[in-house]
Amino acid sequence: MNKITNKVSILLILAGVLACQPKGPATVTTSDAAGKVYVAPGQYDEFYNIVSGGFNGQIGVYGIPSGRLFRILPVFAVSPESGYGFSEETKPMLNTSHGFVPWDDLHHIALSTTKGEHDGRWAFANGNNTPRVARVSFESFRTEEILEIPNSGGNHSSPFITENTEYLVAGTRFSIPMANKDVPIDSYKENFKGSISFIKVDQESGRMNIAFQLRTPGFNYDLSRAGKGPSHGWFFFSCYNTEQAHTLLEVNASQRDKDFIMAINWKKAEEYIAQGKGRVEKAKYAHNVYDEKTHMATSTIKEEVVVLDIKDFPDIAYFIPCPKSPHGCDVDPSGEYIVGSGKLAAMMPVFSFTKLQNAIANKTYDGDFDGIPVIKYEAALHGEVKKPGLGPLHTEFDEKGNAYTSFFVSSEIVKWNVKTLEVLDRVPTYYSIGHLSVPGGPTSKPHGKYVIAYNKITKDRYLPTGPELTQSAQLYDISGDKMQLLLDFPTVGEPHYAEAIPASLIREKSRKIYKIEENENPYAAKGEAQARVERKGNEIHVYMTAIRSHLTPDNIEGVNVGDEVYFHVTNLEQDWDVPHGFAIKGALNAEILIMPGETQTLKWKPQQPGVVPFYCTDFCSALHQEMSGYIRISAAGVKTPLKFSTGTFE
Amino acid sequence: MKKLQPISRLALAVSAVLMVSAFFVPLWRILMWAPQYPEGLEMKIWIDTITGDVRTISALNHYIGMKHIEVEMFPEFTYMKYIVMGIMAIGFIAAAIAKRWALYAFALILTMAGIAALVDFYLWGYDYGHNLDPKAPIIIPGMSYQPPLMGTKILLNFTAFSGPDIGGWLFVLAAILVFAAIFYEIYFQRKKI
């Protein structure tokens, strides 16, 4: 009898236990977070955050700690808002060997450094899809240069830079047959090669050119970092798909327990190039430069590159085994430690540059791959971070000897000590962090203070906006022992890598206007007296000026259907923050925004006769609504006399 | 053998009737949470099918080499409904016979069926969690992913919970009714003596 009551009560208890299911992960809230991110109206943020836009092809400029978005800089994507890629002056910026490519996938940012520290000169960015690198000026916050990368199948391990901005690199994510060879896809092992371009940066102008290309085994080259301090002169690249698979990489490129980190002695490569040992190969690629004086871009097609095959030069390249499909490959501020983040591995190896050098000196090799020595794993290993989390991707560093690694699968940031390899703290991210950024994190002198997470999934963090949700970043305070979540802020595009730099390094040199007397655009009208309309065959050139609150000329006649009308608009203002815009009805391209002292050109082809208005699109003054004009379009063949005026009534 | 009290016969009949629910509501559920899935993923096991976020769960689990969950994987779904119908029939027959041995027999059958179901579920879970594709992208040495039989278990970035759903609870209630009837019968008889 007792037994039976027991049975019943056991059932009831069981029912009780099963009724309390665990709750989902708890949300983190902190009480003093608001004060730490509040930047009072009219006050400035402490850091600029230069954030890649991923598939929007742009760069977002945010303030830290407020998370406020200041500007979206068009780099590899056309911007109808500013006219970038639509104005005649900027169209050449997006020229490539394939023609005009109006979009790209911008993943990584590299800010220029001197002696390993931020110097606030330029930001570099990669175009992943049609391989390109870009340089953005911190004076104008504009894209000044785009260089196409030949022999590349996707420019992912780019544009990481050396400590004095001597070089930036462009490593191919997808290996391909060189020189556009037509071969069967399943001849991958035989015909496909990797290619790593070293792009020399002119220290004065910032101009880029491909100094040389390394020909490497056919793998996927994922990410990269330059050595610094003692390891200056070396570059490290994570390699996956050392299985050399060409189909279902999800499975076939995940079979080997260890892939590689490729260590490149670029100083040695530089020497070989100086000795003339590089071989010149034919390659077609575009080099586009925007001139600040003429306000015009020019595109030049280059014809050749200098190539070194790493297997012909035994002391340039070494492979360090790294588990498993490494993604991030990050060098600590001292330059001694290299962190490999095997995205499928259950631990994280940290390699020592000193040990690597010893292993090379003593030839502590574990055979070779394609003629390249493979260093014995243990010989280069400083140690392993045990059970750090799941899916390690990227590591940034603070000034106190700590590392911060992002974990995609377990959706967290893990703080650990670089020397002791001890895990110190972990915080959840919402959700599935990709890259992360500590101000100055990749430099020799991190500024610390914050770590910013760039997440891949936002899900329930913001008000829903249909199937497509906002992307987001999260700001954490790292000044104490424990990381503390301060702020979620939405980002545009999909943020990949980003860097944060003290505002003091950039703010003062930000350009306010272009001086009108320095305007060398051949189509500039540097005063209303120069405003005019000229016909050259079926081209109509309107040399137009804009100043508060009128356009000159604002009445134009004598244009026919079939003509091509070029509106060269010069903004005569010399005052900060007075851009003018120009738009005309029926334009098949976009508007243009013209900064003070600048000239930009919008091409327009009238399709039908009539009188067409045009106007200023950027609210410039109290009489902005009056800033407009008319162009009369006559039918093809009608001989209306060419006339133009402003403020005169006949 | 003693004849059953009317109330016990009623309990037997109600117990059998309760099992009709198996054809209309889910019997078991598995819930999973991950940092990226704070709202949870759910899998419901019915008498002849599986519903819920099965596709999402399979898509996530393939990284670690777990099988794609398909209804066809479970032969149980083809015959489970007949077993339940059989048990129900036995319940009604026992109520009709109205003998204590029939009550005991039914309780025994019910208990055995419950245990068999759990063992079957355990064996499937063991195979699902251990029999992994050796070519899986993520292989963590020594790690297996058997879902919990009942209760909560942490598996990598997922917290998994397994337990009865409405149908399962109704089965538990059916069993309680039967055991309550046994308890009542024994208690009633002793009082009479």
Automatic annotation (TrEMBL), chain A:
<dbReference type="InterPro" id="IPR051403">
    <property type="entry name" value="NosZ/Cyto_c_oxidase_sub2"/>
</dbReference>
<dbReference type="Pfam" id="PF18764">
    <property type="entry name" value="nos_propeller"/>
</dbReference>
<dbReference type="InterPro" id="IPR041114">
    <property type="entry name" value="Nos_propeller"/>
</dbReference>
<dbReference type="InterPro" id="IPR011045">
    <property type="entry name" value="N2O_reductase_N"/>
</dbReference>
<protein>
    <submittedName>
        <fullName>Nitrous-oxide reductase</fullName>
    </submittedName>
</protein>
<dbReference type="InterPro" id="IPR008972">
    <property type="entry name" value="Cupredoxin"/>
</dbReference>
<dbReference type="InterPro" id="IPR026468">
    <property type="entry name" value="Nitrous_oxide_Rdtase_Sec-dep"/>
</dbReference>
<keyword id="KW-0479">Metal-binding</keyword>
<dbReference type="InterPro" id="IPR015943">
    <property type="entry name" value="WD40/YVTN_repeat-like_dom_sf"/>
</dbReference>
<dbReference type="GO" id="GO:0005507">
    <property type="term" value="F:copper ion binding"/>
</dbReference>
<keyword id="KW-0186">Copper</keyword>
<dbReference type="InterPro" id="IPR001505">
    <property type="entry name" value="Copper_CuA"/>
</dbReference>
<dbReference type="GO" id="GO:0030313">
    <property type="term" value="C:cell envelope"/>
</dbReference>
<keyword id="KW-0732">Signal</keyword>
<feature type="signal peptide">
    <location>
        <begin position="1"/>
        <end position="19"/>
    </location>
</feature>
UniProtKB/TrEMBL annotation, chain B:
<keyword id="KW-0812">Transmembrane</keyword>
<protein>
    <recommendedName>
        <fullName>Copper chaperone NosL</fullName>
    </recommendedName>
</protein>
<feature type="transmembrane region" description="Helical">
    <location>
        <begin position="166"/>
        <end position="187"/>
    </location>
</feature>
<feature type="transmembrane region" description="Helical">
    <location>
        <begin position="103"/>
        <end position="124"/>
    </location>
</feature>
<keyword id="KW-0472">Membrane</keyword>
<feature type="transmembrane region" description="Helical">
    <location>
        <begin position="79"/>
        <end position="98"/>
    </location>
</feature>
<keyword id="KW-1133">Transmembrane helix</keyword>
<feature type="transmembrane region" description="Helical">
    <location>
        <begin position="12"/>
        <end position="31"/>
    </location>
</feature>
